[in-house]
Amino acid sequence: MTQSMQREIVLLLTWMFIMLVVGLIFDATLVFLLIGLGCYVTWSLYNLNRLIRWLSKPTKQPPEVTGIWDDVYYQLYQIYKRQSKARKKLTSILSRFKKSTRALPYATVVLNELGEIEWFNPAAKLLFQLHSKIDIGQRIDNLIRQPKFSSYLNKKNFDEPVELEIQHKKILISITPFGGGQFLLSARDTTALNKIDEMRRNFISNASHELRTPLTVMSGYVEFLEHKADDKIKEPLDRIQNQITRMNTIIQELIELARLESASEVDHTNEINIIELVEDVYNEILTFDNGTHDIILEMRACTPETIKASLFGNRKEVRMALSNLLTNAIRYTPENGKITLFCELHDNHLSIGVEDSGIGISYEHIPRLTERFYRVDEGRSREQGGTGLGLAIVKHVLDRHNATLYIQSVFGRGSIFRCDFTLVHIETNEKTDNITPIDRSL
Ligand code: ADP
After folding, report:
1. Which structural domain range is residue 152 located in?
2. Mean pLDDT, residues 54-60
3. Do 54 and 137 share a domain, yes or no?
């Protein structure tokens, strides 16, 4: 029991004792005890009423009271002061948040769990033509009326942003869940960025195309001179011819990269015959290697009977990616080393990869291998006819096919480059115009 409660009980007992004594003097004990109790209840009710009045406006200091009521007022006043301090802090955080999001150049919209607008900043007002009075409470997909956006919203997978075209502008929208089921939508205009990117791609592509003609002419002259020249001149001419071939390879790969970057999405209705593709690449690399390495093909659980799902996309691009991986394995594996082209089937995943017993790569280089012109050993790459663009092309092709490249390597022991594709199950047994289940097409 609290001290104030103990004091209050002592006070009440003293008061009742006084009333008892007075009652005994006047020979009316019960009457005086009842009067005493009535006075106490009236006093308590009076204080309770004051308390209710004060609670309706607790800003001013609590009134002067005695007994247990003083303690009640004190405790309530402390709670009120703490709450008002916390409220002030929260209000200032909120106003700072609002000020900063108002100043943000990105459109920001707060959505509730139903996708209804709760708040937006001036940039969002401008971009989506929102009006505070009528649009608060509206579902966002009623205002951004685009099927692509609606399906993005319904899928509820906000790992990647979505790009929309709104009033001839490219808008990149990303959604982040926060709090208890709320969402923060932020959008930015990427029209200018896209334009710069397009200009960069066009520049590389045009420059590469322009360089092709003079190189062909130079190559022709060098060939002509080689026929006429004596042995002393032949060697430098050979070196010039090698450099021209190298430049041609770089140009071709730059053009290929630019094409991959600007090409429209791959046709995901076009089925790739996995086994035929892998065997095709394998045969090509055997011819290219001409017996320098021990190259084997391993179809791990990959047979026409086991493959019940299909790989869709651009056959030429996937073939090029696999060829690049195999060419690298040949380049970076010493003569007679072992190279394995494997095809591995998991539930709805297909891994096609290349394992070699070559020079390997130290772990610090692995994250950067798919950057353009990144080479672990530039001299060695050049010597082997590398351009530093092969893995960048592989990465682009895989991205276009929603596939992932995994690299495992131990320096001095060898490497594994594995491409993981997601297979698509075809439910129907009917043969459609452009979709053929792989187990029947083989
Ligand atoms: P490059 O034309 O130089 O081979 P890539 O983009 O294909 O360019 O590869 C980038 C770098 O990754 C190479 O220069 C090489 O250092 C390293 N690399 C690629 N594949 C292998 C491999 N199988 N074994 C060892 N190193 C490799």
Report:
1. 104-189
2. 78
3. no
